[in-house]
Automatic annotation (TrEMBL):
It comes from Qipengyuania citrea. Residues 20-35 have a biased composition (Low complexity). Residues 3-128 form the DUF3597 domain. Residues 1-12 have a biased composition (Basic and acidic residues). This is DUF3597 domain-containing protein. Residues 1-37 are annotated as: Disordered. It comes from the Bacteria. InterPro entries: DUF3597. Pfam families: DUF3597 (PF12200).
Amino acid sequence: MSIFGKIKDSIFGKKPKPQETPATAPATKAAPQPAGNAWADAPVVEQQARPVIDIENNLDNMPGADRLNWRTSIIDLMKLIGVDSDYDSRKALAVELGREDYSGSAEDNMWLHRRVMKELAASGGRVPAEFLD
């Protein structure tokens, strides 16, 4: 699993394994369409809305959040959620998120923290704007 995947699973929670749909429950339903429509008989698959995850709240409620500065430190964020925060892990995460020249500098770590927050937001998380700048 990717490092970002581990971060996301730690914050969002792991997705439950899909359960088999009972044979009596229809998986699709026909959508009403006006006559003459080529798609009139096409089944429509119903999708469930994805819940929005409050990233800040989830992280604040984790054990150790009061001792770690996860809001600005990628190292503390990774420690809080139980993901290895050593240089090699941070470098691998940076490469995964598109930065090949990661050196571990303070500037690189600030970029990495912002990038992780942007990816969490893109994955359905609600991230305060100050974490995205």
